[in-house]
Amino acid sequence: MGLQQMWRLVWRFNSFKRTDIILQHLRMSKHTDAAEVLLERKGCAGVITLNRPKFLNALNISMIRHIYPQLKNWEQDPETFLIIIKGAGGKAFCAGGDIRAISEAGKANQKIAQDFFREEYMLNNAIGSCQKPYVALIHGITMGGGVGLSVHGQFRVATEKSLFAMPETAIGLFPDVGGGYFLPRLRGKLGYFLALTGFRLKGRDVYAAGIATHFVDSEKLGMLEEDLLALKSPSKENIADVLDAYHAKSKIDQDKSFILEEHMDKINSWFSANTLEQIIENLQQDGSSFALEQLKVISKMSPTSLKITLRQLIEGSSKTLQEVLTMEYRLSQACMGGHDFYEGVRAVLIDKDQSPKWKPADLKEVTDEDLNEYFKSLGSNDLKF
């Protein structure tokens, strides 16, 4: 056999081996189109990795369509004791839904604007009702849709790099993905404040606010995950014990008080009002620099979004998660048919001039009749579980 022939054989054998190894990997875990989300069985757990680091792991409809059935399978699988969800790339868990794509689809009247919200909210509900312990590692930016993928699960682990916000009123939307359920259930009126202003919480404050259940120093996150995966047929209590142990040992900002602690009494009093006009009056009357700062922020938001959001939270405070998601689906479709969402996306994400022209531009012009239209049943198009 000549040398050339021999090399050819070796090359063919190696490339066959490579192909075989690749196929084996694919069989072991479901890596989806361009692997935007990785779904893997590891140890005792099903692991979901949001894998669009360039886009801060923003959630699109194809990711939702891969996660939902796999979550349901793992929930039924007697060999899966735990579900872990995390983001790739270290910068973000998930910075939200792919709002730009939804805006373009909505403008073109494509069905995806209906399907995206419907399927996203179905996934939020599946997480909220999941029978298996669900651990979200909310390291990095966690906003909007990323909050929906984490906050309804049993365990949420923040790190010093966590950044939480629900900034939807700035883009003509409202804090959806079950925001109407979890926000009014935070202590006092904290959730109302976060929803209307889009205020950002960082690091240990995400835990102090009650959004995360545990706090772990980010350098220990890999070890925490390994310890969870190594558990043998764990119960919910076993999982909680591991998380509690890591939480107890975390040192970063251990003695720092909650960033809003000194303002909580005022926040509770200002945001107890049942109308936006009254909240604004409360802030004006207070006149402190913190109050005036919030006033400035609120004045930039969509007046329609602000009024929708306040009513969403007041109504959501006494509804179940499913009832809230049904209500929010109605609101999402009304926003898709309105003006402010497209204008907000233009000003914040496309042209980035940060000066949206809201319609109506004044709170006084958003009437109760207008609001009722947003909350109206969609009949046979309502979200059903």
From TrEMBL:
Catalytic reaction list: 3-hydroxy-2-methylpropanoyl-CoA + H2O = 3-hydroxy-2-methylpropanoate + CoA + H(+)
Broad EC category: hydrolase
EC number in record: 3.1.2.4
Primary site of residence: mitochondrion
Pfam families: ECH_2 (PF16113)
SUPFAM superfamilies assigned: ClpP/crotonase
Membrane spanning stretches: none
GO biological process, alphabetically ordered: L-valine catabolic process
Gene, per the UniProt record: HIBCH
Keywords: Branched-chain amino acid catabolism, Hydrolase, Mitochondrion
InterPro entries: ClpP/crotonase-like_dom_sf (IPR029045), ECH_dom (IPR045004), HIBYL-CoA-H (IPR032259)
UniProt-recorded name of the protein: 3-hydroxyisobutyryl-CoA hydrolase
Positions of the Enoyl-CoA hydratase/isomerase domain: 46-375
Family: Belongs to the enoyl-CoA hydratase/isomerase family.
UniProt-listed NCBIfam families: PRK05617.1
Example of a GO cellular component annotation carried by this entry: mitochondrion
Compartments, as annotated in UniProt: Mitochondrion
Superkingdom of origin: Eukaryota
Function in brief: Hydrolyzes 3-hydroxyisobutyryl-CoA (HIBYL-CoA), a saline catabolite. Has high activity toward isobutyryl-CoA. Could be an isobutyryl-CoA dehydrogenase that functions in valine catabolism. Also hydrolyzes 3-hydroxypropanoyl-CoA.
Organism this protein belongs to: Odobenus rosmarus divergens (Pacific walrus)
Pathway membership, UniProt: Amino-acid degradation; L-valine degradation
